[in-house]
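JOB MANIFEST
job_type = single_chain_structure
chain_count = 1
residues = 101
[input]
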Amino acid sequence: MNNVEVPKGWSQIATDILAQKYFRKAGVPQPDGSSGRETSVRQVIHRMANCWRAWGEKYDYFASSADAQIFYEELVYCMLNQACVPNSPNGLTPDSSRATA
């Protein structure tokens, strides 16, 4: 896939895995108002981290909203720097559009 946005230090293999396994292929709002596919690691990481944060808030995992925000920010940092990644992309990959707090 061409025109994939990832950090400069990411390898081609990591970029290919992201594009092939983790990008949502349809239904993603685009800047022009249409819908399409994800093209950026920013979109994927926000979708996942925001979903996990919402689930944590829904099930009272965090002591405060500030704790939830810290969790979100640290998770984003770790994923961008490849310090942690989800185990497996499958039908259960978090979709923040279905997560409600």
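[summary]
The chain has a mean pLDDT of 86.
The longest strand covers residues 28-29.
exit_status = 0
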